[in-house]
Design brief:
The chain is mainly alpha-helical. It contains 6 helices and no strands.
Length: 174
């Protein structure tokens, strides 16, 4: 939700899509995810104390890396969706999930269950992003033109709010 804020969804629906816009979305998403990572990294110790879970201080920064990994793959994922290449996306997702599960479960059954779960949680989006960069390439440029996104602010806000509320409702059920 937070590493992308709904920006990549504009790639799927926008009739006036261009590579400059995709690059702008990529770099804004990466900047947001780095900010989120830094916040979680700095709050790891206080959160571990608040929840009386000292191991959280070591694990939270690793888990926060998923924000950066996900943001690096969001534009690729949107481009795959825009091109209606759902099979390609499903295969990459399945491969990354299976590989991460095998590695995570191996670590967990070796006597380190929390580390195994963390490895699985971090490895899945990292592998998915690597696969997307390898098998769904597009010409990445370091172009940031926020003016290209001005017309999408209302749409992006609605997507971000909807995703946020969806996550809250999912967490309240469990």
């Amino acid at each position: 939700i937070f590493s992308d804020a709904g920006l990549s969804s504009t790639i799927v629906y926008d009739n006036l899509f261009c590579n400059e816009k995709a690059s702008t979305i990529l770099w804004i998403s990466v900047a947001l995810s780095i900010l989120i990572f830094l916040i979680l990294f700095l709050l790891a110790e206080p959160l571990a104390g608040y929840f009386s879970a000292p191991r959280l201080a070591d694990i939270l920064p690793l888990m926060a890396l998923t924000c950066i990994a996900t943001s690096l793959g969001n534009v690729h994922a949107a481009l795959i969706t825009r091109a209606l290449q759902f099979k390609k996306k499903a295969i990459m997702s399945l491969a990354s999930n299976i590989f991460a599960a095998v590695v995570g479960l191996t670590v967990a059954f070796s006597g380190f269950p929390l580390v195994g779960l963390t490895v699985m949680f971090v490895l899945t989006p990292l592998l998915m992003t690597v696969l997307m960069w390898l098998f769904a390439p597009w010409p990445v440029n370091f172009i940031i033109r926020p003016r290209l996104l001005i017309g999408d602010i209302a749409y992006v806000s609605n997507i971000a709010l909807s995703s946020f509320l969806d996550q809250i409702s999912k967490s309240s059920v469990t």
